[in-house]
Design brief:
Distance between the termini: 60 Å
Number of helices: 2
Shape: rod-shaped
Number of strands: 0
Strand content: under 5%
Order of helices and strands: HH
Helix content: over 70%
Structural class: mainly alpha
Length: 42
């Protein structure tokens, strides 16, 4: 019982921050892939 609220407290207050970091990393990798693909096409 005591562990669950602690875990929820850790995850719930700022759920957007890790999502932002993950999305930024994914967007960066996809942009790099698109740039390299365009360079290969050219």
């Amino acid at each position: 019982m005591g562990d669950v609220p602690a875990i929820q407290a850790l995850h719930c207050p700022h759920p957007i921050e890790p999502l932002k970091s993950i999305d930024l990393a994914g967007l960066r990798s996809t942009l790099v892939k698109q740039m390299t693909a365009m360079r290969l096409v050219d």
